[in-house]
Specification:
- The complex is a heterodimer of chains A (about 600) and B (about 325).
- Chain A is built from ten helices and 38 strands.
- In chain A, about 60% of the residues are buried.
- Chain A has about 600 residues and is mainly beta.
- In chain A, the strands form nine sheets. In chain A, strands 6, 7, 8, 9, 10, 11, 12 and 13 form an eight-stranded antiparallel beta sheet that branches. In chain A, strands 5-4-3-2-34 form a five-stranded mixed beta sheet, with no helix packed on it.
- The termini of chain A are far apart.
- Chain B is an all-alpha fold and about 325 residues long.
- Helix content of chain B is about 70%, strand content about 0%.
- Chain B contains 14 helices and four strands.
- Chain B has a two-stranded antiparallel sheet. A two-stranded antiparallel ribbon of chain B has the order 2-3.
- Chain B starts with a helix and ends with a helix.
- The chains are: A mainly beta (about 600), B mainly alpha (about 325).
- The interface between A and B is large, with 57 and 52 residues.
Chain lengths: ~600, ~325
C-alpha cells in the first residue's frame, strides 16, 4: 500500500483510539433527587434528616495541637467525629454516644426518650467532660459489658489517655481506668471489644495511630509524620488487653504475636475462618492492611498477604463485614481513597469459594459490584436499608472542606517524597485554608443482587459534610434501620428511614450467659426463602463507630423463615425454628 | 536485595543503549554528542542489546513489585504489554512489510504498566495502543515527534483524570535506593553520552525551584520533594533522554531539557499536578519540528545530496 494511503489510515487509527478515551472514561457523578413517594416506589425506602426535630444539636469540634503543626492543622487534626450506639439504661431503646475532640469540649450521651426525642444526659451521668487539658482528646468510644453485670460499660479512647467507665445500672458512670490497668497513653485511632479467647469476658483491642511517645500538644520534634505514604511502620503500637475477670486487664499483645506499628485507623473483629474465634482485621493508613488470624485464642498470625486482604498498600480508613451475597459468609469492606490523583479504590474482599478455614483467601470484587469508587472514604456500614433481604452499604466520605482552592497539588508533591522529607511535618506545604477532597456527597449503595447502585441523593442523603463515622440503628423500634452520621467539625446528622410496608424483617437481641453478656462475637445465620444470611454482634466496626447490638434482618416480600441458627462465642449453638416475622426476638444463651 | 538491585536498575540505561544504536543508524548527520559508545567487554555487553533490555526491565518490574509493590496489578500490566506488542506487530508488518523487533513495544508496555495507576483495565490497554500508534501516525519523514509513553500517559491523565493517575509510589522508606538509582542512572547515561540532558534538566529544575519557592512562598524543600520520587527518576533518566524523540546536537538537547523545566515551572506555578509529563508533551514536538525544519533548510542552502528530501520537509513544515 502506498504511503499516501497508509498515513491517513494510521492517523485515523490514532484519532479513533483518542476518541475511545472519551467514550470509556467514567461519566461525572450525577445526582437524581427524587420526591419521597418516587423514592419509596423505586427503591423501597427514603431517608429524612431529623436531628433538629429530635433535639440533637451536637456539633463536633476538632482538636488544636502543637502550634508547630498550625500550617497543616486540618490534616493532622482530621479525625475524632465518632458515634456509637448503646442502650445504656436497658429501656429497650437505642441511645447515642458522640465524642468531641477539642480540649474543653463536651461529649454527649443522647438518651432516647421513646417519643421521637432525645435528651443529652452525658453531663448528668459524668461522661461529658472527657476532653480535659492534659488527658488528650477523644477519638472514639465503644461499649461492652466487661464485668457481665448486664449494663454496657464505656471505653473512651483518645489521642492521649484511655479511660474505662463502669456503668452503674444506667444511673451514672464511674471511672475505673486505674483498677482496670489500661495503658497510660495511647494515641489511638481505633478500639474494639472482643472476646478473643472465648472465656466469657470481653477483652479490649486498642490500635495506636501516632507513635505512643508523641505528645501532640508539646512536640519535641516535627518528625512525627508517616515515614512513607505506602510503607509506614512508625505509627502507634497495638494493645490487646485480656480481661482477667476481676475488673482488671493484662497486656497480652506481645504474647499473642501482634507487633504491628502501622498507622491503624480502624479495627474490627469477627470469625472469618469458621474457627470459633474472632479474627482481627486492621485498616491501616499509609500502608497495607493486616489480617490477624486467631489461632484458638492463643496466638494471632498475620496472614494479610496470604489472604489477599493485605496485598496492596493503600490508605485504609474503615473495616466492616457483611454477607452481601446471602451465602452465609462474610465479605470484608475496607474503604480507601479514590480521587483523581490518587486512585486506590475501596476494596470489597469476597471469600474465594474453595479456600476456606486456614487456607482462607479473598478476592477484591469492589469494581465488579460497583462499590469501588468512594472519593475520600471514611466509615462504611452494611445494613438492609429497604428490608428487601439484601445488605446495602452506606459510606461516608469527604476529608477537608475549606476554600474553593485545592490542596491536591501540594499533597501530591509531599506524598511521593522520600522519607527524609515526608516524615517531617515542617516540610509539608501549608494548607492555607484550602480544601482537600471536601464537600463530597455520601454513597448509599443499594444491593441489587450482584451489583450495587449509588442512590444516596435519590433517597434523601444530600449532605456534603466531612463524614467520618456512620452507624445503622433502629432508633424507634420500627423494624427499619435509621442512619446516624458523625461529621468532622460539623453537626451530627440523624437520617430517619421510611421503608415500604410489604418488606418483612426480623430482629434478634442476644444475651450471653456462658459467653460474654453483651454477646459480642455471637453469630446468627438466618435461613429464609431458600437463602441464608449471616450477621454477628459487633464490639465496634466501621470507622470510630459501633452499630446497635441487636441484629436486623430484612426479608423481602412474602418471606417465610425456616430457622435462625445462633452460634454463641462459648461455642454453644442454638436453633430457633420459624421465628415470627416483624418482631424483635430477645434470646438468652442456654446455660 | 542490595547486590541485585543495581544490576537491575541498569536495565533502563541499556534500553537507551539499544535505542541509541538504532537511532544513530537512521541519522543523516554524524553527531559526536549522541554517538553511542561501542559495546564493551563483559557479559552485559556481549548479549544482543535488543534482548537484554526487555529481560532487565522485567527484572526491575519483578523486584520492584516484590520489594515495593510498584505494580497496580499483574493482569493489567500484562494487558498493557500484550496490547503494545500486538499493535506493534500489526502496524510494523503493515507499514514496513516485515515483522518488527518487539523490544521497543515490550518496553513501552512495561513502562505503561509501571507509570499508570488505575483501578480499571481499559486505561492500561488504551495507553499502550495510543503510545504505539503514535509512533506510526505522528511522524515526519520517519521520525516520531513524541516519546510514545509520554504521549499515552499525557493523553490519559489529561482527558480521563477520574480514571487514571500516575505512579506516586516511593522506593521504600530508605534513602539508599534513591542514591543507587541516581548513581547508576548517571553512570549509564554518561556511557551513552546523554547524561548532559539529565543534568541540564535537574540543574534547571533546581534553579527554577528557587523561583517557584519565591513565587509561591512555599519552602524550597517542597519544591524539590518530587525529585526524590521514583516517577521523577523514571522521567529524568529514561523519558526525557529518549534518543528517538530528542533533538540531535548536544547544545540543542541541553536547551530542550532546560525548556522542559521552564514549561514545567509555568505549569507548576499553576498547580498542575502532572507538570513534567505535560511539559515534555508540549516541548518535545515543537523542538523536534524546529530542528527538522532547521536541518532541512541548512541542507538546502549547502546543496546537500539530501536537498531534495529537505526541500519537501521545508515545504511541508512552512505550509502547515
Amino acid at each position: 500500500m502506498k504511503v499516501a494511503i497508509k498515513q491517513p489510515l494510521l492517523l485515523l487509527l490514532f484519532v479513533g483510539l483518542l476518541g475511545s478515551v472519551f467514550i470509556l472514561r467514567p461519566p461525572p457523578d450525577h445526582a437524581d433527587q427524587l420526591r419521597r413517594e418516587a423514592s419509596m416506589e423505586r427503591y423501597g425506602f427514603c431517608l429524612e434528616e431529623v436531628s433538629k426535630k429530635c433535639g440533637i444539636d451536637f456539633v463536633h469540634q476538632a482538636p488544636t495541637l502543637d502550634p508547630k503543626l498550625d500550617h497543616i492543622m486540618p490534616i493532622v487534626a482530621a479525625t475524632g467525629a465518632s458515634v456509637s450506639v448503646v442502650d445504656f439504661d436497658r429501656d429497650g431503646l437505642a441511645d447515642l454516644y458522640v465524642v468531641n475532640s477539642a480540649v474543653g469540649s463536651k461529649n454527649a450521651l443522647y438518651r432516647n426518650k421513646g417519643d421521637g426525642a432525645f435528651e443529652d444526659v452525658a453531663e448528668k451521668l459524668g461522661i461529658a467532660y472527657l476532653n480535659r487539658p492534659g488527658d488528650g482528646v477523644c477519638m472514639g468510644a465503644v461499649w461492652g459489658d466487661f464485668d457481665n453485670d448486664g449494663y454496657e460499660d464505656l471505653l473512651v479512647y483518645r489521642w492521649g489517655k484511655v479511660d474505662l467507665y463502669h456503668n452503674d445500672m444506667g444511673k451514672g458512670f464511674i471511672r475505673v481506668t486505674e483498677r482496670a490497668k489500661l495503658p497510660a497513653w495511647v494515641n489511638a485511632g481505633s478500639a474494639i471489644w472482643l472476646d478473643y479467647d472465648s472465656d466469657g469476658w470481653l477483652d479490649l483491642f486498642i490500635a495506636g495511630y501516632w507513635a505512643d511517645d508523641i505528645d501532640l500538644w508539646n512536640l519535641k520534634t516535627t518528625q512525627i509524620m508517616p515515614e512513607s505514604f505506602q510503607f509506614a511502620k512508625n505509627g502507634g503500637r497495638k494493645y490487646l488487653m485480656r480481661n482477667k475477670g476481676d475488673g482488671s486487664f493484662e497486656d497480652v499483645t506481645e504474647k499473642v504475636g501482634i507487633n504491628s506499628r502501622r498507622w491503624t485507623l480502624a479495627a474490627a473483629a469477627t470469625d472469618l475462618r469458621g474457627s470459633g474465634y474472632p479474627d482481627l482485621v486492621l485498616a491501616n493508613d499509609y500502608g497495607v492492611n493486616e489480617f490477624y488470624a486467631n489461632q484458638s485464642g492463643n496466638v494471632f498470625s498475620e496472614i494479610g498477604s496470604q489472604t489477599g486482604v493485605g496485598e496492596l498498600s493503600k490508605s485504609g480508613m474503615s473495616v466492616s463485614f457483611g454477607d452481601v451475597f446471602n451465602r452465609g459468609k462474610f465479605c470484608i469492606y475496607i474503604s480507601n481513597i479514590t480521587e483523581p490523583t490518587l486512585l486506590q479504590g475501596n476494596n470489597l474482599w469476597a471469600p474465594k469459594a474453595r479456600r476456606e478455614g486456614v487456607e482462607m483467601q479473598y478476592t477484591n470484587l469492589a469494581a465488579e459490584l460497583g462499590v469501588e469508587r468512594g472519593g475520600w472514604s471514611w466509615g462504611a456500614q452494611f445494613g438492609d436499608l429497604n428490608n428487601d433481604g439484601r445488605l446495602d452499604l452506606f459510606l461516608t466520605k469527604g476529608y477537608i472542606s475549606g476554600s474553593d482552592a485545592s490542596y491536591w497539588y501540594d499533597y501530591s508533591r509531599i506524598a511521593g517524597a522520600n522519607t527524609a522529607i515526608i516524615s517531617d511535618a515542617a516540610n509539608w506545604p501549608a494548607m492555607k485554608g484550602r480544601s482537600l477532597a471536601g464537600y463530597q456527597h455520601k454513597s448509599v449503595w443499594l444491593n441489587r443482587g450482584g451489583k450495587f447502585d449509588d442512590i444516596a441523593q435519590a433517597v434523601g442523603v444530600t449532605d456534603t459534610l466531612d463524614g467520618r463515622a456512620v452507624v445503622l440503628v433502629d432508633l424507634w423500634n420500627r423494624g427499619v434501620l435509621d442512619v446516624v452520621l458523625a461529621n468532622q467539625k460539623a453537626p451530627l446528622l440523624v437520617y430517619k428511614n421510611a421503608v415500604v410496608q410489604e418488606n418483612g424483617w426480623v430482629q434478634f437481641e442476644l444475651e450471653g450467659t456462658k459467653s460474654n453478656r453483651s454477646a459480642i462475637g455471637a453469630q446468627v445465620k438466618l435461613y429464609w426463602n431458600g437463602q441464608v444470611q449471616i450477621q454477628e454482634v459487633s464490639g465496634g466496626n466501621g470507622y470510630a463507630s459501633q452499630n446497635q447490638r441487636r441484629l436486623h434482618f430484612g426479608l423481602g416480600k412474602e418471606a417465610t423463615i425456616d430457622r435462625a441458627e445462633i452460634r454463641w462465642p462459648s461455642g454453644q449453638t442454638q436453633t430457633i425454628r420459624a421465628p415470627e416475622i416483624g418482631i424483635l426476638h430477645r434470646v438468652k444463651e442456654p446455660s | 536485595m542490595f547486590p541485585v538491585f543495581p544490576v537491575v536498575l541498569s536495565s533502563f540505561g541499556i534500553r537507551h543503549f539499544a535505542e541509541s544504536l538504532r537511532a544513530t543508524k537512521n541519522m543523516n548527520t554524524s553527531d559526536a554528542s549522541t554517538a553511542t559508545p561501542a559495546p564493551r567487554s563483559g557479559w552485559l555487553f556481549r548479549i544482543d542489546n535488543r534482548f537484554l533490555a526487555p529481560v532487565l526491565i522485567t527484572c526491575i518490574l519483578a523486584i520492584g513489585d516484590y520489594q515495593y509493590q510498584i505494580l497496580e496489578s499483574y493482569g493489567r500490566t500484562a494487558a498493557a504489554i500484550f496490547a503494545a506488542i500486538a499493535l506493534e506487530l500489526v502496524l510494523g508488518r503493515w507499514d514496513a512489510g516485515r515483522w518488527p523487533h518487539l523490544a521497543s513495544a515490550y518496553i513501552t508496555g512495561i513502562s505503561v504498566g509501571i507509570l499508570l495507576r488505575s483501578t480499571l483495565w481499559w486505561p492500561f490497554i488504551l495507553c499502550s495502543l495510543l503510545s504505539i500508534s503514535s509512533k506510526y501516525a505522528l511522524r515526519l519523514h520517519g521520525r516520531h515527534l513524541w516519546n510514545p509513553s509520554n504521549l499515552g500517559m499525557s493523553v490519559l491523565l489529561f482527558f480521563a483524570p477520574n480514571a487514571v493517575a500516575s505512579l506516586s509510589q516511593q522506593w521504600g522508606n530508605d534513602v539508599w535506593p534513591l542514591l543507587v538509582i541516581w548513581l547508576l542512572g548517571g553512570i549509564i547515561l554518561y556511557r551513552l553520552g546523554r547524561l548532559h540532558i539529565t543534568l541540564t534538566y535537574v540543574a534547571a529544575f533546581l534553579a527554577l525551584s528557587l523561583v517557584r519557592s519565591a513565587w509561591s512562598g512555599d519552602q524550597w524543600i517542597n519544591e524539590v520533594a518530587p525529585l526524590t520520587g521514583p516517577m521523577y527518576q523514571l522521567f529524568i533518566f529514561f523519558m526525557i533522554t529518549d534518543p528517538a524523540t530528542t533533538t540531535r546536537t548536544w547544545r540543542r538537547q541541553c536547551l530542550v531539557a532546560a525548556l522542559v523545566a521552564v514549561v514545567e515551572t509555568i505549569l507548576r506555578l499553576n498547580q498542575v499536578i502532572y507538570a513534567p509529563y505535560y511539559a515534555l508533551f508540549i516541548v518535545s514536538p515543537v523542538t523536534n519540528l524546529l530542528e527538522i525544519w532547521w536541518t532541512a533548510r541548512q541542507a538546502l542552502k549547502k546543496g546537500d545530496p539530501a536537498a531534495a528530501n529537505a526541500k519537501n520537509v521545508v515545504t511541508e513544515l512552512t505550509s502547515n
